[in-house]
Amino acid sequence: MKIENFTLKNYDNIIGLWRKAGISVGSTDSEKEIKRMLTLNPNLFLIGKLKNKIIAVVMGGFDGRRGYVHHLAVDPLHQKKGYGKMIMDELLNRFRKIGVHKIHLFIERDNLEVVNFYKNLEWQVRDDLIMMSFVPDENLYKMRI
Question: What is the pLDDT of residue 111?
Fold first, then answer.
């Protein structure tokens, strides 16, 4: 698999891949919001290709202190072949290069397959935190793409 930086020309392909892989696509995944993420983190937003077809994607984010992993997905036809680990390893290397001390990600509680994927990569489940959310604009949040 060849790993490259994401570009907006691949937007429709990654939205399709996320949906195919079972990732919920919402208002923060609109083209405008993806462009914003890309602008802030151009070297942390990665795609993986086989024969010029995107089969993997991950968005890395950096807030100046910590790193975040969003929407890692591998096409279901190519899962369990090491591609998720490959793209994650590349993202982790890029985080190391910019001096990230700690990296976080969020997984829906009932998605045990994904929890186990990260456990196998030596990630730790945290039970000392409570995740909280606030929606400042209900209309924006409920926007469909």
Answer: 87
CB atoms closer than 10 angstroms to residue 12? 10
Q: How many Cα atoms sit within 13 Å of 100 on the Cβ side?
A: 20
Residue 46 CA to residue 72 CA, distance in Å, equals 9
Q: Comparing 2-11, 40-49, 113-122, 134-143, which segment has the lowest mean pLDDT?
A: 134-143
Contact 58, 69 (CB under 8 A): yes
Domain extent at residue 28: 2-141
Q: What is the pLDDT of residue 145?
A: 74
Beta bridge partners of 69: 60, 105
Q: Number of folded domains in the chain?
A: 1
- In order of 30, 32, 136, 144, the CA distances from 139 in angstroms are 14, 16, 9, 10
Q: What is the per-residue pLDDT for 110?
A: 87
